[in-house]
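Handoff note, outgoing to incoming analyst
You'll be picking up this chain. Sequence as last confirmed:
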Amino acid sequence: MTFKTDFLWGGATAANQLEGAYDVDGKGLSVTDVMPGGKERLGILDSESFDWTIDKEHHTYPNHQGIDHYHHFKEDIALFAEMGFKAYRFSVAWTRIFPNGDEMTPNEAGLKFYDQVIEECLKYQIEPVITISHYEMPLHLVTAYGGWKNRALIEFYGRFAQVLLKRYQDKVKYWMTFNEINSATFIPGLSQGLAPLNGSKERKNIFQAWHNQFVASAQAVKFGHALNKDLKIGCMSIYSTTYSFDANPVNQIATQQSIQEFNYFCNDVQVRGAYPAFTHRLYEKYGVKAEDLDITAEDLALLKEGTVDYIGFSYYMSSVESQTGEGVEASGNMVLGGVKNPFLQESEWGWAVDPDGLRYALNDLYGRYQVPLFIVENGLGAIDQVNEDGTIEDDYRIDYLRKHIKAMEEAIADGVDVMGYTPWGCIDLVSASTGEMSKRYGFIYVDLDDEGVGTGKRSKKKSFDWYKEVIASNGKNL
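Most recent structure output, in case you need it:
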């Protein structure tokens, strides 16, 4: 089996990590705009002292500048076109369209920016793949409404999604409602706008926020399908292939429950249209009572009516579950935790490199859901060295991507329906987990450091020409 002739090769970014221009043309503040840069970013977000304000005396805010894609998008998309992209996955900054999130009418200046971005893609026959909300909800919806635990946000998101779907229905075929919706398992601040000060430590709030997002997603899907039957609207989650540390049944059961909670819970609701059978047990684990959640019969009916067309997912690494723990070394992975896998190497940021885990993920998801799959994030964050002649020999990135593409090819041979592949951070941008520029993913180098100092000049890495050949050969030349 080989890749389909219409396979969507491309790359992926997010508005809050590359656009910059955080306060121009009417844009409001987003949750990411108040998150400081540096390796302690997620720890700060999860601290009792984090109050959703900007403190430039003690922190830097690299997202404010990003790579200034806002003013360089034509140059950047031209480089994507030179690589031969068939698709470009990007997100719309909610705060460019509704600066506070609760306005009745959108900001036309923000919409005009995305008009241009979409037209630029179409000029090169690049399919825009839009994530409606990608870690950048309006800050006002947190400070005034308490974040996604408030049902009022269903209406606000609905207004935002409908504006986009109406405006771009004839130009954008592929959509996703929420980025990495299951990330709230560990980091509710990014996707739900919940920190300790407004309720992240009460698990009930996270489940309520998820429910409200599920309803909002279903509404958007139903609206989009009624608007244009050709639109393909997906969900998007993180997939972490999870292994048991050993054959101890205690660890096997813990692994199964971890997979259910992290990999299946959100997907089940959005793809199957109903909460899974293990939901009550999951509530019980966190001391949540179902009767304390605001879930109506109308909500449950809507979930069935607004199921997604495909699953978009990110895959970076696998993890290992151990409840017994004797002689087990903790993983360096700051996001998913777990223990080290002695059979795998780790990236400079402690993420286990596991291409076979991607084949496993694809088979697992397709076996459970029987809907097309779209790998919308995959890549290696690494420190790149610029040689004296300006070249960047990122063979380690090529090796990582080559192995993952081969694993994807094996999954297709296994019978999995894979729509496309858009590696993360196709151009260097600010890391979501650490707020660093030095954690680079791109085929295109951007001359900026962690403090935002540099020329901003774009230059091609060795991986640029390699990926260009991969696309041109439809995955044959790796």
